Amino acid sequence: MTKVLRILIAILFIPAVASAQWTYQGVFPDSTLLVNTAHGIAVDGQNKVWVGPYNSSILTPASEGQLAVRRNVVRVFNPDGSQASFSPIVGAMDGDSLRRFGPITGLSTDHEGNIWVSSHGFRVNSATENGGTWLQTRTWIYKFSPAGVLLQNREITFMRTETASHAPNRVAVTSDGDIAVSFVFPASPIVLYAGSDLAPLGTVTNDKIGFSRTFEISADGNTIYNASFDKFYITQYKSDGGVFGTYTLSTDTTLAAGMAPGAVHRYTVGANPILYVSAAGGGNDPVARAPWNNTRIYGLSVASGNAVDSLAWDYGTRTAFAIPRSMAISSDGLTMYLGTFSTGTPAVQKFTRATVASVERDDVRADGFALSQNYPNPFNPSTSISFVLPEAGVATLKVYDMLGREVATLANGVFAQGEHSVRFDAVNLSSGVYLYELRSGNTRITNKMTLMK
Prior knowledge:
- With 453 residues, the chain is mainly beta.
- The protein is globular, with a radius of gyration of 24 Å.
- The strands form ten sheets. Strands 1-29-28-27 form a four-stranded antiparallel beta sheet, with no helix packed on it.
- 2% of the residues lie in helices and 42% in strands.
- It has one helix and 36 strands.
């Protein structure tokens, strides 16, 4: 059997990583409605797309005898891009008066397909003022049905003062519908509420690490993923009892290490969660560290930290950095919407794929040999590969291109029993998929990795 044929057959038996390619479908919707940032995106249980900008919109144009009324709104679109009949949503009734949204800081979907809206303050409903006074010191969260009906709302008071302005994070939702709420600034509390009636459940921490625009919670509530963009990794708070347990700050600093994550979104494939993370999105500058690409969104296996999926903002002829700030995935996993905080460009782009990305399988074999998925993956230009030998012996680790040509020998010699790690520098190679193979005695394990320059 030739080397080429042997390598191609090996592909059939290795984990599927970054296998579901995203295709750019264009700006969403095909209109000029969404041009002033998309700080929040969510897909409801009927596949309608909810978009909330941080900036306000001019809903009533200035004319003789009439003010130009500015409003913060949430627009809702059908899958074909047409606006839903109840769109835009401008706020919620507070007794007999309308409490209008302040800037929208996040949108989330719960287990029943309802939409949570986080609002940075609110606007007083006054016909004598230009859109109403923006009261920045008071924060609300709202839950709407897919039909646009207000189901619940609550003022978040645990950071409220009469002078300080606090922007809330996007609400994080468990598979039971319970929620976690926090704010952008470091040292903010993270507080849990029951999704059914918004009764307080407890506090994750009173001293959140780092700045974070968005954060997530695992489906079982055992882990909070805080996208600390100024710390260049995702800080984690863990509990053995879900939302009813006690959370502690994890010492694991490897998840998204080197990224400046501005947006996170959890999507579960079977029992395996993938955390989609923007490599850079916390501010105006593309500051993610190598090997991460500033313009890409990566799907990270929560179990291993490896990148198993990725896609990028489509710049077209535009070259200025577009700040990733929001993302949402349809319930079937085949459509993603990306939003940017940058102005002067359409705020939302749509991507589709034919199949859902899969999370790599356990890399430890029954005979004790192991060849881990390289980390990070995709990579540029270097990555680490770990392997385990059940006993001391001769081992080789080589890299091949997809035509079966050897491009590098990473290890060749006698190794002790246990785990070993080597570095692969692909600075002189072109972008593409490469295979790496561990050989020891009669054992051969093959895996694949993606170089993305």
